[in-house]
Amino acid sequence: MSSQALKPVHTAQAPKALGPYSQAIVVNGQVYTSGQLGIAAATGEFVGPDVESQTRQVLVNLGHVLKEAHSGLDKVIKTTVFLKDMNDFVAMNKIYEEMFAGHRPARSAVEVARLPKDAVVEMECIALVDA
Fold it and tell me: What is an example of a GO molecular function annotated in this UniProt entry (predicted)?
């Protein structure tokens, strides 16, 4: 595969990458997002300290990145959820289910020792891109 087949995605509606990577890459009809945190793009700050507010913002951010890639939450194939504390799983799940509005992509969820900027949740996803 040539590097010309890879299309980086960037939107100011989601927080800019914290390092040398793209918000997402589109290739072969799919979009692969980088992990998103519960940070508001306008302020660069977390929307709140709790898993509910951060989960909601993570999914809003993913929605913006997906939209820029001509996709959306309804086209997500798989998500990966990283939690600082697995005790937050039920609370995260409630917001996740609400935001996906009946769509149930494949998913993995793992507890990690630490997340960037001491976030409590981070998510990445793979989705189909509109033809």
Answer: deaminase activity
Q: Phi and psi (nearest 5°) for 89?
A: -60, -45
> How many whole angstroms separate alpha carbon 66 and alpha carbon 76?
9
C-alpha 7, offset from chain centre: 18
User: Are 36 and 58 a contacting pair, CB within 8 Å?
Assistant: yes
**What's residue 1's pLDDT?**
46
Mean pLDDT, the chain, integer: 97
Residue 3 has pLDDT above 60, yes or no: no
- pLDDT for 4 equals 60
The count of other CB atoms within 10 Å of the CB of residue 66 is: 26
At 6, give phi and psi (nearest 5°).
-95, 130
Nearest to 36 by CA among 103, 86, 99, 90: 99
